[in-house]
Design a protein that fits this description.
The protein is mainly beta. The chain contains 1 helix and 8 strands.
């Protein structure tokens, strides 16, 4: 077993999961803040040099889990590890946000898909060495292709 604790919290315009865009073509453009706790502020040194950040967070309002389910983007069931479902064995979320600026312990970001008050476990600079032509979108690409124009 291990213990994790929040390094900060999200300040988002979303107060209910129904407000977060979902489904094919959903765009996550909401702006807000990640407020880092005072004891971790030193860890933000030089973060403003990055354009995007990985945010590792907790689905703190999700209960239980399902190993498969039908996501809002398809009519067919998929395994939980092939989806972004909040109903996971370990309720962890991962989001890439655009860093718009830093105001002390507050990071102004865009691309939020989490609720206001969501605990943040870690922040990491977004770096990807995977060329775009090598990325595959799996069942999601197939579901989008099946959707009527």
């Amino acid at each position: 077993m291990f213990t994790v604790r929040p390094v900060g919290f999200v300040r988002s315009p979303y107060t209910d999961t129904s407000q977060v865009p979902k489904g094919c073509g959903a765009r996550h453009e909401a702006e807000g803040f990640i407020e880092v706790l005072e004891e971790f502020e030193e860890g933000l040194l030089d973060v403003e040099g990055f354009s995007h950040l990985f945010v590792i967070w907790v689905f703190d309002r999700s209960e239980g889990f399902e190993l498969s389910g039908v996501p809002p983007t398809d009519t067919r069931p998929h395994g939980v590890f092939a989806t972004r479902s909040p109903r996971r064995p370990n309720p962890l979320g991962l989001t890439v946000v655009r860093l718009l600026g830093r105001e002390g312990r507050r990071l102004r970001v865009a691309g939020l898909d989490m609720l206001d008050g969501t605990p943040v476990l870690d922040l990491k600079p977004y770096l990807s060495g995977v060329p775009p032509e090598e990325l595959r979108r799996g069942w999601l690409a197939e579901a989008e292709a099946r959707r009527p124009a």
